Structure formats: C-alpha cells, structure tokens
Amino acid sequence: MDTLLAGLFMSAFLSATLLPGSSEIVLAGVLSDGTISAGPAILAATVGNTLGSCVNWGIGRFLSGFRYHRRFPLKPEQYERYSNWYGRWGIWSLLVSWVPVIGDPLTVVAGVARTPLWLFSAIVFAAKGARYIAVAGAVNMIS
User: What distance in Å separates the CA atoms of residue 79 and residue 90, rounded to the nearest whole number?
Assistant: First the structure.
C-alpha cells in the first residue's frame, strides 16, 4: 500500500514538471485496484503534483534571467504566449494549471512573474485537487 502511494506521488510529481506523464491514469489504476481508498490516493497525487508545479515555479523564479538561453524549458514564443495569458488573467490563470500542455508553462511564468509561493501553491493545490477528485469520481462511477 505504501509503495502504491509513493508511486502515485512520484508519478504526479513528475507529471507536473515539464516532463511528459499522465498521473490521472496512475490514480485510476490505484483506485480500481481497490487496496487504497480515494482520500489518501487523492491527497498523495495532489501533493505530488503541486510540488512538481513548485519545481516549475522555481525554474521560472530563479532562472528567468536565462529565458532566452537555448536550454530554457520554454521557447521565446511560448514564453510570450503564456506571459500574455498570465498578464491578462493574473494568478487566476493558475486555476487551469491542471490542463495538459497549458498548465506546466503557466506555472513557469508564474515563477518569472514572482507570484508569491504561498499564493501560487494554494491556487495550484486547489485546481489540481479538484481534477483528481473528478478523476476519482469517474473511476467510482465506472466501478
């Protein structure tokens, strides 16, 4: 059981960084297995995914001076697109931080914009937690 939660946590953590991954599938698998209840599984996935997003925030916050370097995780045109989005919607754009393709770059831009980490974490935790609750609900309906 602890191994399953640790694996779910790591999957969610890595999926939140700029690395590809799909922690929703892992959560669905863990829940359909039936050995772990939804509460601890949702919490492990949400905490892991939020911490992974904090890594992105840190990349943006501490490496923003290198955003034109060829190894910065966002190309300049991507950075401009997501910066415009963040500039228009502000911190509330983080409510879509759970959306594939859009969410990860937004969390980097939030770091560049120097969004306070406590506020960033609270909004991202709520958004990602809601997504995992929805996934758990769907798995429960199917089972």
Answer: 15
11 Cβ partners below 8 Å, 6+ apart? 21, 23, 26, 45, 48
Residue pLDDT tens, the chain, 143 long: 588 899 999 999 999 886 777 899 999 999 998 889 999 999 999 999 999 999 999 988 998 788 788 877 778 888 888 888 888 888 999 999 999 888 888 999 999 899 999 999 999 999 999 999 999 999 888 86
106 in Cβ contact with 133 (< 8 Å): no
* Residue 55 tokens, joined: 């890594």
CB atoms within 10 A of CB 37: 10
Q: How far apart are CA 105 and CA 115, in angstroms?
A: 14
What is the reported pTM? 0.89
Contacts with 14 (C-beta within 8 Å, 6 or more apart), sequence order: 21, 23, 52
Q: Rounded CA gap, 29 and 25, in Å?
A: 6
Outline where 17-116 has alpha helix (H): 23-33, 38-63, 76-89, 103-112
